[in-house]
Amino acid sequence: MAHIRLEDISLSFPVLHGNSRSLKKTLLARAKSTMTAKTGAVGGRMRVSGNSTDVVEVQALINVSFTISEGERVGLVGHNGAGKSTLLRVLAGIYETGEGLLDIEGDTHALIDPSAGMNRELTGRENIQLFACRMGMSRMAALELEQDVETFSDLGAFFDLPVRLYSSGMSVRLGFALATVPRPRILLMDEWFMAGDQKFQDKAKARLEGMVDAAEILVVTSHALTVLREWCTRIIWMESGEIRMDGPTDDVLDAYEAAVALTPA
Ligand SMILES: Nc1ncnc2c1ncn2[C@@H]1O[C@H](COP(=O)(O)OP(=O)(O)OP(=O)(O)O)[C@@H](O)[C@H]1O
């Protein structure tokens, strides 16, 4: 049975090296003032590193613990810099954490960066062929993949031009078409899937739904609360690196929306 179990996971990023006392003082004071208005907070907590007084670090995750079981569709919400993407990257194995316990049963696939693994000097078609080669696909399967991605991304003549010539929306079309091919047991998704023009978004939603249905566990981060209400059975509300609330979708999103409404614009 697929599951994710986290116990006391913390992660900090060093953001300032050096012994300039005034700069450190200013930075920490400003960080403190943005933290005091709880729901209006931005970013993780800043502190002087425990190991070195010359390093200021931002605590992106602080003692995060939860268990996600098979069948759960979990949404991550929270202010900018609350730690949602960092948490997703920890689950995807992109960031390693020294402390705590991370126990994941089941293969994961992360839809985090639409251009991940793309060679921008190669054409869209060549990138697909390279992907098929890396995955050890048969000639027939590789051809099917190429046709599927070409049809879905709908890039016309641009499919045979180098990716460096694509607009950001065109890169998303190609990256999205390719990234949504695997059928993992645990699907991790950042909100970039909302990118692209309206016509593409409708098509993308239908393709994503197929992928989400096939997954045993979904963890998705998004500021689009209507999407989360539609897709998720449970919401984890992050605030400055910590879990503020974890529970059924409507309970948490109602509380979150009420808190956001109280925050001064
Ligand atoms: N690579 C990095 N180096 C330094 N600090 C980072 C890095 N990645 C994230 N952070 C910091 O960690 C904190 C959490 O960032 P994260 O990207 O996880 O937030 P988020 O909740 O996904 O925000 P948003 O909704 O704006 O995407 C922020 O304060 C951010 O500045």
From TrEMBL:
Gene3D superfamilies: P-loop containing nucleotide triphosphate hydrolases (3.40.50.300)
UniProt keyword terms in alphabetical order: ATP-binding, Nucleotide-binding, Transport
GO molecular function, one term: ATP binding
UniProt GO cellular component terms: membrane
CDD domains the UniProt entry points to: ABC_KpsT_Wzt
One Pfam entry name: ABC_tran
Domain ABC transporter residue range list: 46-265
Keyword 4Fe-4S appears in the UniProt entry: no
InterPro entries reported in the protein's UniProt record: AAA+_ATPase, ABC_transporter-like_ATP-bd, ABC_transporter-like_CS, ABC_transpr_TagH-like, Bact_Polysacc_Export_ATP-bd, P-loop_NTPase
UniProt superkingdom: Bacteria
SMART domains, per database record: AAA
Homology family: Belongs to the ABC transporter superfamily.
Protein name: Sugar ABC transporter ATP-binding protein
Native source organism of the sequence: Gluconobacter kanchanaburiensis NBRC 103587
Gene that produces this protein: rfbA
